[in-house]
Design a protein that fits this description.
Strand content: under 5%
Distance between the termini: 82 Å
Helix content: 55-70%
Structural class: mainly alpha
Number of helices: 22
Largest sheet: 5 strands, mixed
Number of strands: 5
Length: 520
Amino acid sequence: MFKSINFKNLSNIKINNRFFLVIILALVLIYNFQETCFLKPQGLHQWRQCVGASYAMNYYNNDLDITQLRIYNHLSDNATSDFSIADFPILYYIVAVCYSIFGNSDSIFRIINALIMLSGLYFLMLSSYQLLKDRFWSFFIPVILFTSPTLVYYSNGFLPDTTAFGIVFIALYFVVKYIHSKKISHIYWASFLFTLAGLIKVTSLMSFLAISGTLVLMYIFSTKIRKEFNIYKFILPILLPIFFVLLWNFIVYRINSSIGGTISDTNLRPIWDMDALAVEETWNRIQHRWLNSYFHISVQLTALAMFISSLIFFKKSMRVLTIITSLTLIGSLFFFFAFFRSLYAHDYDLINIFVLIIFGLVSGLILLKNYFPKVFRSNYLKIAAMIWVSFLVIECNKNINIKFHGYHNYSHKHFYHGLQDIEKTNRNLGIQQNDLVISIPDPSINITLYLMNQPGFTDFGLFNKSGTERIDYFIKKNAKYLIINDTSIYSKSEYDYLQPYLVNKIGQHRNIGIFDLRNL
């Protein structure tokens, strides 16, 4: 029966492309994008997602003024401004432009981000076909990437990491095109796209640096390469991404240093500066919470085995790709240990390292094709791969459901949910768009502020002030209203200091109490 199944029937590239889009659409539906694309920022890392969403919303609120990089929380300039720079804002600005056309719905942000990542998968499929010359395996590579729960969860969210990651695969497509066509225009397109990805998320340059390093090493050690290639025509395409990314990060550093209130610490947070207990706690978090969420362990081990095989049988492998993979691995390990402390809470920091899985799998499949072409083309192997991928999709779906609706979403369901539609109530009560509020309890930078589209203050920042001193300080900074989202704090002794500020209650919206702080 299996012998009758021929995976070569998809020989027409148009049919191939359409069929791949059908597969991706099926995955999108299985992963329930039709529901999650219409959710407010919530679930795992609601904190960081609200930061990203706030940039786009504040561009929209401020008439698309590109200089208005605002996050609602007045952390800058001695608590007088919500201006803060983190990521290169092109994604946020494009989303804001779409808000101005279609209305300010969070679904627009989610859909745009998802489309960019899915486009990356499409170009990965095209690149895989160029390298493997096999329809089935060219589908297999991007599909298995899209079984990463971490990637799938954030791909239709508000973080720029998956945006940059998707653009990287479009850039890599032009690199592969150059290998086959030798047209220098493809290198410049790749350079432009790597620049864009690097500006959005600097870690996305990992593969670019590995490719550049491979080119330099081959030029130094290969007489054939020196004769066939003019290295000088690659200098500008290599330097452009490095120059613009360094320039942008220098600008960010100078501005944030002058105003304070930075929300993205770009300093190293290395493992060698941590004590043994902190290292153990971080590793336990990675091992027990994040690792299997990056990829199923079977995918990680398979990619590793394929990469090691390409090293052992280097002469039969695609040597360029094996060297690129090796340099990417070295760079990834450096990043892992240099920013180890961040990985306790930030699983998404490693998204752009996932390219290692792809490089490892493609390297292994090329080796298999060269050594055992019959096995490479075997229907039995392809059937097994389909069963494996089906299992991975099921496991991924379970994992992302927990990220959206499990314990990660407790605070949103029980406290923050009422803020999603409070804006109309606030305006009816006379609270204007630019009036500052104190929103508690909220340990994040701006979750509650974003959900109600209102600037002000939360429990984040100014950790040297607490209780009455903290509230009075915010009032001096022109805070006019107090917003309380947890009704239990009224009876908790640690919040007794709030009593003088609860005199003028002007409204109640679901579980949210609204108090006027003026004329106390």
